Protein 1
Amino acid sequence: MKQYIGFDVSLKDTAISIRQDGKRIWRGKCASDPQILAQIVRKHAPHAERVVFETGPLSTWFYHALTAAGVPAVCIEARHAQKILNETLNKTDANDADGLAQLAEAGFYKAVRVKSFDAMLTRTLVGARNLLLTISTQLSNQIRGVMKTFGIIVPKGTGRVFDGNVRELLDGRDGLAQIILPLLEAWRDIRKRAAELDRQLLAAARQSQAIKLLMTIPGVGAVTAVSYAAAIEDPANFKTSRAVGAWLGLTTRRYQSGEVDYDGHISRRGDNYLRGLLYEAATVILTRTHASNQSGLKDWGLRLRERLGFKRAAVAVARKLAVIMHTMLNTGEAFNTSAGVTA
């Protein structure tokens, strides 16, 4: 007498479908609150085997709250589920919940690992810092662009240099100053808030032995190390270190059908931001010439650059970095600059 449940979650309401022995035994809708949903599960499905819902904005909260309430929650890959749910003739929330319940009963789904609240808090800190820096850059570009319209070219410079140059050029131009100075003040305030988040990020890096270990790699700074550690959480989440490269979308896609068989570009699945950080770190490794940057990884990347070009070599080094960083977290050993690297 096992029951299988599907939740189609939206911001306001959640559609519920409960199946048993291949048949739907109950269907309904309630507010999107894990506590209310847990009560409904206990009432209508006391022998619940699996409760399935898709990834989404509320999935982290739902998963941890339902699990704490004793509900056997399973978060599944939305893209995988949608390929099946789209076969339904009529697209409704109730029908989607039915489809998810059928997936739960058949076991035909791809479960995803839901990050802990601590990991999500760290990722939120990194994301907020990155957002403020992006807004700061946009504001400075806007100021430069507006002033160019009036024939005023702001010299190159950042921070206080940029602020001083703008104020100096606005001297005697009261009409334009009334427009630009509020933008400049907003730019300064955003930079201050970004600096505050920077300090929080560096404090978190100093308190973690794992992050300090990752920062022994040339080109890997606090932001990359913190982001990687928060994404991986526990090295045991991956069976092998090589799996991390595929998880981050840094491995090539393959298409094979009949006589056709070829590899394409990298899949670009997973965390876009972390993948970009690893690519930046790989670029630093390949281009920085300081003696402290010499390593077997750099030598391997430079050989690839001669054969494949810079961009492909940088992607390969980024993938190798992801593998090496996972191995370091597993073993607790610092980066070995003299170790050779194989493809």
Note: The chain has a mean pLDDT of 91.
Protein 2
Amino acid sequence: MYKTLIRPILFQFDPEKVHHFTFAFIKAANKIPGISALIRRMYTVNDPRLEREVLGLKFKNPVGLAAGFDKDARLFNELSGFGFGFIEIGTLTPKPQPGNPRKRLFRLKEDTAIVNRMGFNNGGVEEAVKRLKKPSASLRARGILIGGNIGKNKVTPNENATDDYRKCFEALHSHVDYFVVNVSSPNTPNLRALQDKEPLTKLLSGLQNHKLQTANHKPIMLKIAPDLTEGQLRDIVRIVKDTGIAGIIATNTTISREGLASPVKKETGGLSGKPLKDRSTEVIRFLHRESGGSFPIIGVGGVHSPEDALEKLEAGASLVQVYTGFIYEGPGLVKRINKALLDR
């Protein structure tokens, strides 16, 4: 019903406006008695065979919602009913920022893809913390984990980036289960320069040392771009080992436009969706092989079917995330992936 009836209607309107409308609709619907339970029955697969022990955490199932969908932690309680094993909020920055000027979100229907140049638009980490302090009791009871994706403010120079990431880390520490350091978005000027070996080692070492001083250690992961060379990916493997961070999320959006059919491909920003699938899987396979499987990888990029998810898991990912596939395929995608995992 989603792809034949609901999606064609939603896709008639501006994607950012649709995003806000959908949030409001889901929020309102879940306030109706019995609706949240009905959604869980429709979309959730409960089976202990789906559980995964990763990052020292127990995931109810290996399918998560990637960062960027619920940037400000406004809907994570309601979204948990769609069958996810974990939900990643953010990217959050220390101070609120509006992001880039609109229009900044584009559908590439011919390519089953999205281009965004949002620019870390968010209300700031402290506002998100206020919402995270009031999760429904059933969220934790149902074993849904929350990740915190953190970044730096646009106005913060790269040499001071560690301070921004540390502020977000400290603010979120009591409210999330793991952290993701985002230095790979193409939509904040010079942010990707932090992926270079020296600044990245400095940033991650600083956060890791800070983590070790906390009472309850939370794992830190790094989210990388799909546009890195093999040499840069080898550096990433070495940096993970040298700094002791927990693992990698592969991958963020790409700046490549190779092979696209949509006229919207000329828009600047990060590309997500089906065109990213193969490159994301290549990066996962390369990292897994080069590291000897010594750290976990969360695979994301172009997951639009159970087969796509299985491909990433077979390439070496421990868990997978969806975002653009969730928009194009609908909420039933998570259930189909989990059922496919049980049928393997």
Note: Residues 2-343 form a domain with the TIM Barrel fold (CATH 3.20.20.70).
